[in-house]
Every structure is written in structure tokens, then in C-alpha cells.
Amino acid sequence: MPEPTAVRGSTEPAPRVEHELQLYYWMKLIRAFEERVSRLHRQNKILGGVYSGAGQEAIVTGICAPLQPGDFVAPIHRDMGVFIMRGVDPGRLMAQLMGKETGLSRGKDSFLHGGDLEHLVFGSTSMLGSSLPVAVGAALKFKMKKEKNVAVAFFGEGAASRGDVHEAMNFAGVHKLAVLFVCENNRYAYSTPLEKQMAIEDVADRAPAYGFKGYVCSGNDLLAVLELSERVIARVRGGEGPALIECKTYRYRGHSEHDAALYRDQEELIEWQSRDPIPRFEYYLEKKGHDIKRIREQVDERTRDEVQKAVDFAESSPLPEPQEALEDIYAPSGAPNSSNPSTNGTR
Ligand SMILES: Cc1ncc(C[n+]2csc(CCOP(=O)(O)OP(=O)(O)O)c2C)c(N)n1
Questions:
Q1: Can you tell me the distance from the alpha carbon of 33 to that of 199, in angstroms, rounded to the nearest whole number?
Q2: Which residue, 34, 125, 217, 260, has most beta carbons within 10 Å?
Q3: Radius of gyration, CA atoms only, the chain
Q4: For a pocket test of ligand 1, which of 190, 191, 196 has the largest count of ligand atoms closer than 8 A to its C-beta?
Q5: Per DSSP, what are the bridge partners of residue 181?
Q6: Domains in the chain, CATH or no CATH each
Q7: What does the alpha-carbon distance between residue 198 and residue 29 come to, in Å, rounded to a whole number?
Q8: Ligand 1 in reach of 130 Cβ (< 6 A)
Q9: Nearest residue CA, atom 21 of ligand 1?
């Protein structure tokens, strides 16, 4: 299957992000972190499912790089990289994956539902697509409070077939909210291939029906994702209303670690691996005159150390005490948003 054109729906040149080596480092860190998590899962050290995003790093990196601290992000189950990009400490993220007391939810959950509102990362819920209306709600708050922030909602092409997604986009379009919808189209929703999922090729084609623009880009090409995200996010932030970016990509591993993905063709996998976003960006860096061999060695060492530090922190952290199970269920008394008086004082 041919790779889609790098970018469709845009003709203007975009400003270049300067910190190319930082972008490279992020993609490598996300890959190293996820690969380690897959290995730890086989060692039975991870709590709950692991949904690897290996192969899709250019999307989370390219979309999150231009974001600002007050922006709100709703990732999906495959987006461990979003947490890393938003500044969540990898050690706390690893502790979350291991169900430890030092994790984001203090050992109450696996990765799947763990968010970090300190970094404005909303934890996914199990219902596919249900975090999109939440991101739209965050964007509504930005509008009401006249805040110049953007909400970003990631979703898969499988989730795109759910009602929540349509309701969220419709509401966002009607109220011209500052929300960016990002579809990570990896061609499979668990074992369901794209053509059994939807009758059109591009999810982005739906955007005009809600009154905003849809763009398509290669999700395996960091520069293509950035070219769009920088410009589109600036417009969304500037008050032009929502937008949708669809990134065409492929997941290397099964839907989750227990899935051998026997429903797909090896040839197809190999074809997509030949478009891996990391060597592709290395090629770019090399052509720009960087000593890529040296940079790769340095970055590999740095990411290895960082991931090992995260694992050591998580492994040496305690599991939560049983009596903590009912803590942090309600907002504490006096919390700015605790409007329900019946929850005040209960912990
Ligand atoms: C409403 C709903 N239906 C089914 C599921 C089970 N399920 C979890 S993930 C998944 C596949 C999701 O595919 P997609 O949205 O394309 O994202 P991807 O996993 O490919 O990144 C399915 C079917 C679910 N969690 N929620």
C-alpha cells in the first residue's frame, strides 16, 4: 500500500521548529520507554494492558512540540509519549504502569486511565472516543474565560466510528472552540481493518461537515506532522475554531501485548517498518550536516539511562497500602472546583 502524500489540505510553507535534536531525542526516548514497557510486561511487572505506540512516535512528538503549558491534552491508550512530551516525569509514569504508590493515581490504576492534571493530561476512559467531549469541554472553558489555550484530543480511526466523536466535533464546530482533533489512523482497530471500519479513505473528510478544516499527513514523517501542527495550532489558538489533523500511520506491535496480530500480513508490516519515523528523521538530520552516528550514540546512551532511572524508581517504590484505596476519590475539601458540598470533608 502506498504511503499517503506527506500533507494534503495545506499549501502554505510552515515555520520550522528550531530544536531538531530535541525532537529527535523525544522520539527516541518515547520508543525506548515503550520498548522497555513491552519487555517489563513479559516479565509480569506491569499492571494491566500495554498498548504500544511503537511506530507512531512522530505523531505525539509533532503534535505536542508546539503546545504551551496551559494547553489541555486528551491522549488515547496508545499515547504514553504524550505524557513524556507534556513533561510528566518518566519515573512517575513507569510507577503508574507498575501500580505503585508513586504513580500518577497512587497505585489505583494501570496506564490506561492514569492522567496528570498537573500537566493538563487527561486520563483515557475505557469507552473509545469518550475523552473527545471532555477535551471539547476544556475548550469551552477556555472560551468562557477568554483564555488563549488549545485543547487537543487524540483518537484512533476505530474510535472515529463512535457517536461521542461526532457529537464532540459537532459541538466544537458550532461554538468555534479552540480544539484540535488528531486522528492516529493506524489502519486497524484491534483486528478490524480500515475498510471494514469506514466507507471512505480519510477520516479528515468528515471535518467540513462540522464546519471546520480537515488535513491529512503522513504520521511517519515528523516534519510533515510538524509542518501542519505548528500552523494549525496557531490558527486554532488565534480563534479560528477547531481543526482536524489525520495522521496515517501503522502500529508495529499487536493491539496490546497479548495480541500476536495474526490478522495482518507480514509484508504489510515490513513495508511500514521501512518508513520508520526515526531513521527517516535521522536521514534528514544527516543531510542537514549533523554527525548522525555520533548523535545516535549519545542519544541512545541518554535515553537508556533515563529509562533505567524510571524503572529503578518504579521498582523501588512501594505498592499502596490497602487503607489508601478510598483516598483521592473525591476532591478534597476547599479544592477550587469542588462544587458539590456533600463531598467536602470526605477523603
Ligand atoms: C466503545 C468501545 N468499543 C470497543 C472497545 C474495545 N476496544 C478497545 S481499543 C479498540 C481498538 C481501537 O482502535 P482505534 O480507535 O483505531 O485505536 P488504536 O487502538 O488502533 O490506536 C477496541 C475495539 C472499547 N474500549 N470501547
A1: 36
A2: 217
A3: 20
A4: 190
A5: 153, 244
A6: 7-316 (3.40.50.970), 321-347 (no CATH)
A7: 34
A8: no
A9: 156
Ligand 1 atom, smallest distance to 128 CA: 26
- From CA 102, how far away is CA 82, in angstroms rounded? 19
Pocket test for ligand 1, best of 128, 130, 264 (most atoms within 8 A of CB): 128
SS3 237: helix
Q: Is the CB of 128 under 6 A from ligand 1?
A: yes
Is residue 53 helix, strand or coil?
coil
Residues linked to residue 185 through DSSP beta bridges, in sequence order: 248
Q: What are phi and psi of 170, to 5 degrees?
A: -65, -50
51 vs 120: CA distance, rounded Å: 21
C-alpha cell at 179: 480544539
Q: Is 218 helix (H, G, I), strand (E, B) or coil?
A: strand
Rounded to the nearest angstrom, the distance between the alpha carbon of 232 and the centre of ligand 1 is: 27
Pairing of strands 192-193, 213-218: unpaired
264-302 pLDDT per residue, tens: 999 999 999 999 999 999 999 999 999 999 999 999 999
Q: pLDDT tens digits, residue range 55-67?
A: 999 999 999 999 9
Residue type, 13: P
- Ligand 1 atom at shortest distance from the alpha carbon of 186: 20
Low-confidence spans in the chain with pLDDT less than 70:
1-18, 335-347
CA of 311 to the centre of ligand 1 (A): 28
Q: What whole-number distance in Å separates Cα of residue 175 and Cα of residue 212? A: 11
